[in-house]
Amino acid sequence: MGSDSYAFYGRGRLGPPGREKGRWKSRKSCLRPSWSPEPVTPLPPPPPPARAPSARVEPKPPVTPATAFTSPVETPDQVVPEAAGELGFDSGPDGVEGGVPGGVVGGIVGGLPEAPPPPQPVRVGGAIKAPKKLRHVDPMYPRIAAVARVQGIVVLECLLSPEGRVAEVKVLQGIPLLDEAAVQAVKQWVFTPTLFNGVPVPAIMTVNVRFAL
């Protein structure tokens, strides 16, 4: 049977197309589907990959800059004293225990520690070398002693400062008419510092002042 063959559905009779409408059908029409395929909906794209969890950065605490003291642009008309409560404590009407009358608010209880006592003067001689004289002043010969023809040696004990200056003078063996002139001259003398273990210290030394006509 060719491409134009027929098939009959029902009573088993064959015939050309066009007869007994509704019974005779072409083989091609029988093989043709009577329904149309539904359109294929494309699949949605896959979701993007999840991001890796990022490391959490702890926020740093804000840094408060130090308060700098600056001079005022304009000079105030008057200075208002600060209240005691603004200093962070209340001294009360009677002050702080251990304070002193007339003390300053906010000061150290008991006051500042006392300064260490000055080192004791050492006597020149032995291991303590005598300092060198840097400045010498001759004594003024008293007129009354010159008229009386008084001569001799005045022995003095001097206390030298760590800088080498004469701080005190004491007469050990003197002449009444010549002692004051000798003392005034020696007070103007200057020596090198006296060292003890490499440190300048006060020193005591004996000097002789000669008077001669």
Task: Put the structure in a nutshell.
With 213 residues, the chain is mainly beta. The protein is built from three helices and ten strands, in the order E-E-H-E-E-H-E-E-H-E-E-E-E.
List keywords for this structure.
4-stranded mixed β-sheet, mainly beta, 8% helix, 10 strands, 213 residues, TolA/TonB C-terminal domain, two-stranded antiparallel sheet
Structure description:
The protein is mainly β and 213 residues long. It has helices at 27-31, 143-147, 179-186, and strands at 6-8, 24-26, 122-123, 133-135, 152-160, 166-173, 190-191, 194-196, 199-201, 203-211. Among the domains are: 1-33, no CATH class; 123-211, TonB (TolA/TonB C-terminal domain), CATH 3.30.2420.10. The protein contains 3 helices and 10 strands. β8 and β9 form a beta hairpin. The longest helix has 8 residues, at 179-186. The N and C termini lie far apart (180 Å). Mean pLDDT is 75; it is low at 5-14, 18-24 and 85-89.
